[in-house]
Design a protein that fits this description.
The complex is a heterotrimer of chains A (about 120), B (about 150) and C (about 160).
Chain A: H1 8-26, H2 30-52, H3 72-103, H4 108-116
Chain B: H1 5-27, H2 36-54, H3 56-62, H4 65-88, H5 103-135, H6 139-147
Helix pairs in contact in B: 1-2, 2-3, 2-5, 4-5
Chain C: H1 3-24, H2 28-53, H3 66-82, H4 101-111, H5 117-125, H6 127-148, H7 150-156
Helix pairs in contact in C: 1-2, 4-5, 5-6, 6-7
The chains are: A mainly alpha (about 120), B mainly alpha (about 150), C mainly alpha (about 160).
Chain lengths: ~120, ~150, ~160
């Protein structure tokens, strides 16, 4: 059952991933960079979860009847990754707050200028 | 946020249910969607809501910060203790089957305990993250406060 | 114009949409986590950070980052080329679905005895992973406390 649209999930993931990457590189505001990183991260989540999907399957909670279940392993990996993601985001935001304290700005260009002076 | 009567009332009604729901998610995670990670976040969200609505000073009286800082470590310690208990009872690290004579019952109690450890750590880390941001003042502003 | 406030709120909505996507893809536990963490706590933490850094930013028209755009598009094109021999969406015979997942689904009801396979893999089969993740969260929490907490600044004075 090879279809052209069978790879659509990867294309969506790549589009989101590159959006996140572009924001991380191009945005000069640190908060926007963090949002870009988070978008990149969700793209990875979607990739794992879509790989674990099995056609005709249901959520992997055993009901006793013979059923097709989706792959539980990617769910486990991503479940923990989401919570770790928010913890690291919080750490990044804390660093940004300290940068604001030290330099008075959260813009990358301004911080670079202050450092080079 | 300190003057809004509607927000105060709604928060007071909602917070017990949020915490009840967190406990349900924590202990029903074996049978349905849920578990320590989600329960910890929801539990933390209940206290964060209290902190947003009633202000930081009241919230710190409900959950003292030193206690929260200790609880972050308690969760990790509970998790590793269960692992080491498996070792002491003759199994491998984090092997729950040896915790009780019946291996399936041992798995049950092991999973319940480590999910509890995960929940405690996640909830207290989320609360301490929020209060770290809430109490932070930029050094220049702090000096102004002291002059006032 | 409070640009950053808008960006954070749109990120929250995007996160909620991701959660609904996860429900459609049968990952109910992940959707639950994403809805609670991504939409709830992430947004609150970003707003707390914004209240400290200021939400208003000046929009300065700098040189357009053409190089960044080219790099992203180039890498995206390379990745697209790489997907051509990936397994099809929802293919039951994809390598990812043939390795240990059938073992977990068949054996966990006897070995662990709880219906939610995600919980039994998370807590029992892959307990080491979860221990590591909990330690990461703990470390990140300590990092934020030491960056923003009272004790760190008292020492500076």
């Amino acid at each position: 059952m090879t279809t052209f649209l069978g790879l659509l999930n990867y294309w969506v993931v790549i589009a989101l991933m590159m959006t996140g990457l572009y924001i991380v590189i191009a945005a000069s505001n640190y908060i926007k960079k963090i949002i870009g990183l988070n978008i990149f991260q969700t793209a990875v989540f979607i990739m794992y979860i879509s790989i674990g999907k099995v056609s005709g399957g249901t959520a992997p909670i055993l009901t006793g009847q013979p059923e097709v279940y989706s792959n539980p392993l990617p769910h486990v990996l991503i479940l923990t990754a989401i919570v770790v993601g928010v913890a690291t985001t919080a750490l990044g935001l804390a660093l940004i707050v300290r940068i604001r304290s030290a330099f008075g700005t959260i813009d990358d260009h301004d911080v670079q200028e202050i450092i080079s002076e | 946020m300190q003057q809004h009567l509607v927000l105060h009332l709604v928060a007071k009604i909602l917070i017990p249910f949020i915490i009840l729901f967190a406990l349900y998610v924590q202990f029903h995670g074996d049978y349905g969607p849920g578990g320590g990670f989600q329960a910890g976040v929801i539990f933390g969200a209940g206290f964060i809501l209290y902190g947003i609505i009633f202000g930081k000073n009241l919230a710190v009286r409900v959950v003292p910060l030193p206690l929260i800082y200790c609880m972050t470590a308690v969760g990790v310690l509970l998790y590793t203790t269960v692992g080491v208990a498996g070792m002491l009872l003759g199994g491998e690290f984090l092997n729950y089957s040896v915790l009780l004579p019946d291996s399936v019952a041992g798995q049950h109690i092991g999973i319940l305990l480590i999910e509890l450890g995960v929940g405690i750590t996640v909830a207290s880390v989320m609360i301490s993250l929020f209060f770290s941001y809430a109490q932070y003042k930029h050094p220049d502003e702090e000096q102004n406060d002291e002059q006032d | 114009m409070t640009v950053l406030f808008g960006a954070v709120m749109i990120y929250g909505i995007y996160s909620l949409l991701c959660a609904t996507l996860f429900v459609v893809l049968d990952a109910v536990d992940v959707a639950f986590t994403e809805a609670a963490v991504g939409t709830g706590i992430s947004t609150i933490l970003m707003l707390s950070a914004l209240s400290l850094t200021g939400s208003r930013i000046e929009i300065i028209h700098r040189k357009k980052p053409i190089l960044a755009l080219c790099a992203s598009l180039g890498l995206g094109a390379a990745l697209l080329w790489g997907t051509s021999d990936m397994p099809q969406f929802a293919d039951p015979s994809a390598p990812a679905n043939l390795h240990v997942a059938p073992y977990y689904l068949e054996e966990s009801s006897e070995q662990i005895g709880i219906p939610n396979v995600v919980t039994s893999v998370l807590a029992s089969y892959r307990g080491y992973d979860t221990l590591g993740e909990v330690v990461v969260i703990f470390t990140a929490g300590i990092g934020v406390i030491s960056l923003l907490g009272r004790t760190a600044r008292r020492r500076e004075d």
